[in-house]
Specification:
The complex is a heterodimer.
Chain A lengths: L1 H23 L19 E4 L2 H6 L2 H8 L3 E3 L11 H10 L7 E6 L6 E3 L15 H4 L9 H7 L5 H5 L4 E3 L5 E3 L5 H19 L2 E3 L1 H15 L2 E7 L4 H10 L3 H9 L4 E4 L17 H28 L1
Helix pairs in contact in A: 3-12, 8-10
Chain B lengths: L5 H17 L4 H20 L3 H20 L3 H38 L17 H16 L9 H9 L12 H9 L6 H34 L6 H32 L17 H7 L2 H12 L9 H19 L3 H19 L19 H22 L3 H11 L13 H20 L16 H18 L12
Helix pairs in contact in B: 1-2, 2-6, 3-4, 3-5, 3-6, 4-5, 6-7, 8-9, 8-16, 8-17, 9-14, 9-15, 11-12, 12-13, 13-14, 14-15
Classes of the chains: A alpha/beta, B mainly alpha.
Chain lengths: 308, 482
């Protein structure tokens, strides 16, 4: 018995040390969200779903606005607007600055819910996600995340290669082939999925109120800029079916921000990897456009305050 | 409680220590600990259904004792029927009530009768089919005077609820397992090490092979209308490995866990995908259920010592009942029927006991003939699995008709095909280990590694690391639903 227990303990200790060492080497290739929970609290944030996570590039924005943006966007399932995302944003904010810049990206999905009652908070889809459950969002290494949300994917930690790399500034850098056949195939499959969503998603008043709540909270620490990112014409049709008068509905939120930029008019100017997400180059262009738009507003504000 | 969870990883060592250090001096106390642990294990999922197990235990314990006292044939029959009605009654209500109701309603509606049915939202108690069959075998064996009833209620309760095999088998016979509760168990180092090895291999099968295959099998089966015939074939292959890894993995963990407590359970899977004909497959797949049906249904019906037509009838009966045992859906019944159709030519040509040994015994490689026989048998089971996995008969037929189309020659494509390549490598590794260990109780029982202990440790370390790196922890075992 003694021999059995000793051998079991010895074997377990060796294994636990190995697990620990492997988990310690998790990085941006290992998981599309992990680093968002290991980096320090931030002054300037980009919020939204995966469209923003991939499409809004902090490197570009930082250069134009001379700041340090952090992309704290996740996905359609993890970060639609709601109490859980707001709480997570509150945890990620440093509270050191009152002149921060916050880019809040919004689309039909981020203010919609699954199911018959889209306002039933206890069944919101993000409740059990990393955004909904992690209390600590700035600890490195973040074992809570690794153990709860990466199980089944630890091999990725060792592979060190993936089509998606999460940068330290939260930008999800996705390198997918952009040849027309691949894009067509991905777009067809993704849009088919979104068409299916259409029958299960409904506009949520509660989510919209939380969007307003989030903007109000961020207003205390800087300027909030609301944006609607461009997307493929096919997806836009589906989004318009989900919330027909999107901009009209958004008005109460727009009124409390420093500005609203709707890029939906320019949908066909950009390229998408799968009909939903901007390609890397198009993401740079969109980030540039948004940055200059913000710069102009900020300059005008500075001008006004100087004049006053 | 699931074997592949942190809960069980904590539960097992606690019970192990209490069992060998606190209660080892007293057999009754040790059996009591097994009963309590087993009830906690089961109640972790839903404590309300513990009453069902307790009730079944009481009924069969009392009926067993009464059967031993009673010599009158008529009375003995009544007692047997009482046990059958109670046990199968529970099973029938929880598992088949809605199925029969829906089918009766459909049938009567077809003939113009307007029937309003009241289907109930019934939760199926996990493992009910397994422990029901285990307790039934006890009563039937006593009725047939093949077994003496036990007067030790604690031992009987432990036999019915023994946690390693309570919810998904192996379905143990009282003649094998019950006597083990009468004797004092002694800790045996080699048995315990063997148990640990089998647990590790079971976890590998479940968490690495089954759960990863499940990811693709689910995607392909759930969206089968969108995929080509070649992709659908891959979906069926993934499902074949999912169900094998899942169920035989559970059996390995159950047998291994039992060994840690000094018990020996019977082998439940004997490398079925290396079978050369369908009869061999059924001698190697879910052995405890196949032998249960053989002993309590097939042989009482006359088995194969009857005329040709009765043989055919008997084969259809056991395969259809076996299909129905798996679930209240026509897909399972067709799966059973299909296997009966496969089995008949082998039986009627007296070739059903042709391949009793392991394939290529004592050799590294099979002959071309053996390889092609294995391939054909696997292809036949694959067709059966499509019915087993499909949501409905219509779904299964659509799935098969797409496979039969020209799209069978397209390049397979589905979301996540890159990771699927890696999973395929793991399947090849798994098959290789299974092939090398096919003459043993489980694949890694006696690896032909160099005598040096370090090689052994490195091998087991590698298997656990593969579980850690590629395994998932969230999926239920498929056979819980049966």
């Amino acid at each position: 018995m003694k021999r059995f227990i000793l051998n079991t303990i010895l074997f377990s200790v060796v294994l636990l040390i190995s697990f620990y060492v492997i988990l310690l080497s998790a990085d941006g290739y290992s998981d599309p969200f992990y680093l968002k929970f290991t980096t320090p609290k931030q002054n300037n944030l980009i919020l939204g779903t995966s469209k923003a996570a991939q499409g809004l590039n902090p490197y570009v924005i930082n250069e134009i606005l001379d700041t340090e943006m952090y992309n704290y966007s996740f996905s359609i399932n993890s970060s639609p607007y709601g109490i859980k995302y707001l709480e997570s944003v509150k945890r990620k904010l440093s509270y050191k600055k009152v002149s921060g810049i916050f880019i809040v990206s919004v689309d039909s999905w981020s203010i919609s819910s699954l199911g018959k009652d889209p306002n039933d908070i206890p069944i919101f889809r993000e409740n059990n996600s990393c955004v909904g459950t992690l209390d600590v969002v700035d600890k490195n290494p973040n074992f809570s995340y690794l153990l709860k949300f990466m199980s089944g994917n630890y091999y990725k930690i060792l592979h060190k290669q993936s089509v998606a790399k999460l940068h330290e500034n939260g930008w999800l850098d996705v390198s997918l082939s952009l040849d027309s056949t691949s894009v067509y195939r991905r777009t067809k499959s993704t849009l088919l999925g979104y068409e299916k969503y259409l029958s299960t998603y409904n506009y949520s008043q509660v989510r919209f109120e939380y969007l307003i709540e989030t903007i109000k909270f961020l207003n205390t620490y800087g300027n909030v800029y609301l944006v609607r990112l461009p997307t493929s014409v096919g997806l836009m049709k589906i989004e318009n079916q989900l919330i027909p008068n999107f901009n009209e509905k958004l008005k109460p939120a727009i009124e409390i921000t420093s500005g609203y930029l709707d890029l939906a008019d320019k949908n066909s100017d950009y390229k998408y990897t799968d009909g939903v997400h901007l390609s890397k180059n198009s993401g740079k262009l969109v980030s540039e456009e948004i940055s200059y738009w913000i710069k102009n507003i900020e300059n005008a504000q500075t001008q006004n305050s100087t004049n006053n | 409680m699931l074997f592949n969870t942190i809960d069980f990883a904590l539960f097992l060592p606690i019970v192990f220590f209490l069992y060998w250090f606190l209660t080892d001096k007293n057999l009754k106390l040790q059996n009591l600990l097994i009963v309590i642990s087993s009830y906690i294990f089961y109640g972790w999922w839903d404590w309300r259904f513990l009453l069902l197990i307790l009730f079944s235990t009481l009924i069969d314990y009392i009926i067993g004792l009464q059967l031993a006292k009673q010599e009158d044939k008529q009375h003995r029959k009544i007692l047997l029927w009482a046990s059958l009605v109670v046990n199968l009654g529970f099973l029938g209500f929880f598992k088949y009530y809605n199925f029969f109701l829906d089918n009766f309603t459909t049938a009567f509606s077809f003939f113009g009768a307007d029937i309003k049915s009241n289907s109930l939202s019934i939760i199926l108690p996990i493992g009910i089919s397994f422990y029901t069959f285990q307790t039934l075998s006890y009563t039937i064996d006593i009725y047939k005077k093949n077994l003496q009833p036990t007067k030790d209620f604690l031992a009987f309760a432990a036999f019915v609820s023994f946690f390693p095999q309570l919810v998904a088998g192996p379905i143990e016979r009282a003649s094998n397992l019950l006597p083990q509760f009468y004797k004092k168990r002694k800790f045996n180092y080699h048995l315990a090490v063997d148990g640990m090895q089998q647990i590790v291999w079971g976890l590998f099968k479940k968490m690495v092979i089954a759960d990863n295959c499940a990811e693709y099998a689910d995607v392909i089966f759930d969206n089968s209308a969108d995929y080509s015939g070649s992709t659908l074939v891959l979906g069926a292959v993934f499902f074949a490995f999912q169900i094998y890894g899942d169920f035989s993995g559970y059996s390995d963990i159950a047998i291994g866990t039992s060994r840690l407590f000094g018990f020996n359970l019977k082998q439940n899977f004997a490398f079925p995908y290396f079978s050369r004909d369908i009869a061999e497959f059924w001698r190697r797949w879910h052995i405890s259920l196949s032998t249960w049906f053989r002993d309590y249904l097939y042989i009482p019906l006359g088995g194969s010592r009857v005329g040709a037509w009765k043989k055919v009838r008997n084969i259809f009966i056991i395969f259809i009942v076996s299909g129905f045992w798996h679930g209240a859906n026509w897909t399972f019944i067709v799966w059973g029927t299909l296997n009966a159709v496969y089995f008949l030519p082998v039986l009627l040509s007296n070739n059903n006991r042709k391949n009793l040994d392991s394939v290529a015994k004592g050799k590294y490689f099979p002959t071309i003939k053996e390889l092609s026989s294995m391939f054909i048998t696997f292809a036949l089971t694959l067709l059966g699995w499509i019915f087993f996995r499909a949501e409905s008969l219509q779904h299964a037929f659509q799935y098969i008709s797409e496979i039969m189309s020209y799209s069978l020659f397209d390049m397979p494509y589905f979301m996540g095909i890159r990771k699927a390549g890696m999973v395929s490598i793991l399947i090849v590794f798994f098959l290789l280990i299974e092939w090398l260990g096919r003459e043993q109780q489980y694949a890694i029982e006696k690896m032909n590694l160099p005598k040096n202990k370090i090689f052994k440790w490195v091998f087991y370390y590698s298997i656990v690391m593969l579980i850690f790196l590629y395994g998932t922890t969230s999926n239920d075992f498929i056979y819980f639903q049966f």
